[in-house]
Design brief:
By secondary structure, the protein is mainly beta. Helices cover 5% and strands 32% of the residues. It is built from two helices and ten strands; from the N terminus they run E-E-H-E-E-E-E-H-E-E-E-E. The strands form two sheets. Strands 1, 2, 4, 5, 6, 7, 8 and 10 form an eight-stranded antiparallel beta sheet that branches. A two-stranded antiparallel sheet has the order 3-9. The radius of gyration is 17 Å and the shape is globular. The termini are far apart. The N terminus is likely disordered.
Amino acid sequence: MSGESASAINRSQVDLLDFVDWSGVECLNQSSSHSVANALKQGYREDEGLNLESDADEQLLVYIPFMQVIKLHSVLIIGPEEEGPKTVKLFANREHMGFSNCNDFPPSDVAVLSEDNLKGKPVVVKYVKFQNVRSLTIFIEDNQSGSEITKVQKIVLYGSTVETTDMKALKKIEDH
């Protein structure tokens, strides 16, 4: 991911929250009292008192499936200055990954979050790698201070839906 941020999110880019398949969302190593819903779901993620927290160590692995194919443009991850995420790896269309195989596959993109990112500056992804996304896995490898607990206050995914071709609208080419 480039350190560059969209100075303004393009108007065609929307919050992809409405396209998340909530029945399939998973988060490994989340604290039972501070789950992924706190950072991802509408209403919860706006409440500054709620956050997603890691449990056994600083790493978090969030799997987000979509109800339809999307194009991902940028990611917003907000967290506190000390315990906020630092190294974030994104994997497009890698289903049911575990911590053990995060190093087996090259990530579609990697970001090292700055203080500006943690305060609300979105990170633009390598757009060409996120054109046909059915699911997104977010691997938070470490946090800003190296402490045992990572906290995420808000995750927002910006992008657009992929327009699918209406096969019925296509006319059959006659054989000559």
